[in-house]
């Protein structure tokens, strides 16, 4: 008698996640479009088993044992550096929204005076200790008031602004560690008199002076969600994709 092997086809449903974007005018966000199911064709059935032998097979003589040869040593690739991420505001009462006006960034709301810390280890690129913003003036590099940007060890630039104070030890070229105190939450620059930290993520295209890129080019909220829960979600791939698409040059 033949035994028939049956293979069942598997159906895979692709779920499409909606990307970050500005909310609708009534404050709600648009629901994502329904995903289109993708069907995977089952493999062709295998051939039926041959009929069982009528006579018992002859015993197979045992093979002599062979001592395996030792494997040649191979060079071990360097272990990638472990990058730690920290939520940039150290306070018990914190809120933020997944979207931001005009360009990708996040405003993290907390009381003035709460601690702002380095989101990861790296080197300070720029520091502004003076609030030179003039209310009503066009958008420009003074929008942030007191601010700090740093180049993380992961190659990503992190920018925080509207500080009420920047620590005296935080200067361009200084190395900082994840969680190190940078300053305090404030409302300098164009913060509209609201205490919060403007937080932006970007590639270091020109490293300094490129304020339009520095203020933020990718949505930070998904990474902030992870870091707030002590997770380690990295923005490197997202930033690299933006960098390639926009021909960003260091």
What is the distance, rounded to the nearest whole angstrom, between the alpha carbons of the first and last residues?
71 Å
Amount of beta strand: 15-25%
Classification by helices and strands: mainly beta
Shape: globular
Give helix and strand order, one letter per element, not per position. EEEEEEEEEEEEEHHH
**From the alpha-carbon coordinates, what is the Rg to the nearest angstrom?**
28 Å
**Which strand order spans the largest sheet, edge to edge or round the barrel?**
4-5-13-9-8-7-11
Q: Give the averaged pLDDT, no decimals.
A: 78
Provide a descriptive summary of the structure in words.
By secondary structure, the chain is mostly beta strands. The chain is 9% helix and 20% strand. It has 3 helices and 13 strands. The protein has helices at 211-214, 221-228, 236-245; strands at 11-12, 38-39, 89-90, 95-96, 106-109, 115-117, 122-128, 146-152, 157-163, 165-166, 175-176, 181-184, 196-202. Strands 4-5-13-9-8-7-11 form a 7-stranded antiparallel sheet, with no helix packed on it. The longest helix has 10 residues, at 236-245. It is globular and about 40 Å long. The termini are far apart. 29% of the residues are buried. The model is unreliable at 1-56 and 72-80 (pLDDT under 50).
